[in-house]
Amino acid sequence: MHIMKAIRIKLWQDLVNYKKPTSFQLKETYPLPPYSTVIGMVHTMCGFTSYHPMEISIQGKYFSKVNDLYTRYEFKNGMKYEKSRHQLEVGEYGVGRGIATAELLVDLELLLHIVPDDQSLVEEIAQAFEVPQEYPSLGRREDIATIQEVKIVSLEKNVRFKKNISVEPGYGAYIPAKDVEEGLIIFGQDDDGVVGRRNALGTRYLLTSTYELINRGTAKAPKMFRNWQKIDTFYATDISVSAMKIYSKDEDDKLVFIRMKKD
């Protein structure tokens, strides 16, 4: 068992889109923010100018989904303006303007655990969320987040549970796929309300986490691309970890879904 400190944050958002990178005509959203989105928010709130390694646990729920129209601008590199083709002229280049649809989550609640590798940063991160220097957003820049609670908690990693522990009612979570494959997670409930072991009932995602810049050009003409590290996860709701299983939780018996590390 390892004891560490974590920052637990509860926040709420009215309407939000966590865009799936492969969606275009309909800007689809993930059910919860990917790891990279949360990591980016933490670094922005703290004013970090370099990457600070951290582990993130993401849980939450939303009331419903709606579709909303937005203005989309399209242009092709080097395409000259043509009056019959383009709606806008920018310099000598043409830009098309039209409408597209974005999928939005409604009335979203999030429960985040932030576990920095450098434990000396715990107080600094907590302070950045308790007294933000600018309005916090998560997702699009306009997706304002209302912070409801910030608490520094003790995190017990790889501890043997003495009782069954479940997520909040109705909550979903991103679970490392390896934990699901090793049978650490219980999915769903039996009809009589007793938690029971079932097959994995969730959606599998490869979620972006961190990246490194790769030069695919030359030293004289660099072309930098982000090479993303991705985490294999399941998204599922109404999940538990049973007694006698080894997993992670905080001091208030809130499950923490970070990758298990063997002693």
UniProtKB/TrEMBL annotation:
Top-level division of the source organism's lineage: Bacteria
GO process annotations (BP): defense response to virus; maintenance of CRISPR repeat elements
Keyword Zinc-finger appears in the UniProt entry: no
Organism: Listeria booriae
Key words of the record: Antiviral defense
Record bears the keyword Magnesium: no
InterPro entries in UniProt: CRISPR-assoc_prot_Cas5 (IPR021124), CRISPR-assoc_prot_Cas5_N (IPR013422), CRISPR-assoc_prot_Cas5_Tneap (IPR013337)
Name under which the protein is recorded: Type I-B CRISPR-associated protein Cas5
